[in-house]
Specification:
The protein has one domain. Helices cover about 90% and strands about 0% of the residues. The radius of gyration is 21 Å and the shape is elongated.
Length: about 260
């Protein structure tokens, strides 16, 4: 196969994947508003995704705040703008760094877990058994997980942002003897509602994308137990790529909105 054939085959596979994922998303929206609603399973998934990701997200956020402030401080002091460090760090973390890095961490932690779990259920024919018994496996397994990720990712991002700012304050307090009140007054004065709203809205899209891709890969897992690993790995890779695309689109739309 030549280069042209390889590119054509790759493009064909990509378009097929996009089409199948779009159909899968359409089925989700169709099933999400139909009775019965699996509230107990939804709450269980929210607890599992949120509780089991708290430590990882918290540590990641804290390190983001520490490293970002340590890296920025020498250059800001060289420019005589050390007083602007809290404002710069606050805007950067709230607008972009906090949401995208936390979402990528969750794509690895939650997306791979969903892909592996549903993939295992598919290859061991548990999903087929649910269909035979009259249960709607799509509503019970897929809808609840996608709704849970859509709700929990924004909450995890908010927690990560807060912890990142706490880590940044710790560096400023040690290095520059900045008080807690002064630091967060500077952060608060630099942020506006326009900083919070777009970054919060896109975290819901991030959560939906992570849940959608993870469920899609696991629900249609093939090739036995070897396919479970492939499903988990591809769920992380494709969810991460989709997060970058969504982030770019969200930033672009926000920029266009503020230019109007």
């Amino acid at each position: 196969m030549g280069v042209e054939g390889f590119i054509r085959s790759g493009l064909k596979d990509f378009l097929i994947e996009v089409a199948e994922l779009s159909i899968f998303a359409g089925r989700f929206f169709k099933e999400a508003f139909r009775r019965p609603f699996e509230f107990k399973e939804f709450l269980r998934q929210c607890y599992n995704m949120g509780n089991r990701s708290l430590l990882l997200v918290g540590v990641t956020g804290f390190i983001i705040g520490l490293v970002f402030t340590l890296q920025s401080r020498p250059k800001m002091m060289e420019l005589g703008a050390s007083a602007w460090i809290p404002s710069m760090v606050g805007i950067s973390i709230i607008r972009e760094i906090g949401p995208i890095i936390t979402a990528l961490i969750c794509a690895g932690r939650i997306g791979s877990g969903i892909g592996a779990e549903l993939g295992s259920m598919r290859v061991t024919e548990q999903i087929d058994a649910m269909e035979v018994s009259g249960t709607n496996p799509f509503k019970y397994l897929v809808v609840t997980r996608i709704l849970a990720t859509t709700l929990m990712i924004p909450l995890l991002v908010l927690m990560s942002d807060a912890i990142a700012l706490a880590g940044s304050f710790m560096i400023e307090n040690i290095k520059g003897d900045v008080s807690f009140r002064l630091y967060f007054e500077n952060v608060n004065s630099s942020l506006t509602f326009g900083d919070f709203l777009p970054s919060t809205i896109k975290t819901f899209l991030f959560g939906f994308a992570i849940g959608l891709v993870g469920c899609f890969k696991g629900y249609y897992c093939k090739h036995g137990t070897a396919g479970v690993g492939v499903a988990a790995n591809s769920a992380v890779v494709e969810a991460s790529m989709l997060l970058f695309v969504l982030d770019f689109v969200a930033v672009l739309l926000t920029d266009i909105f503020y230019d109007l």
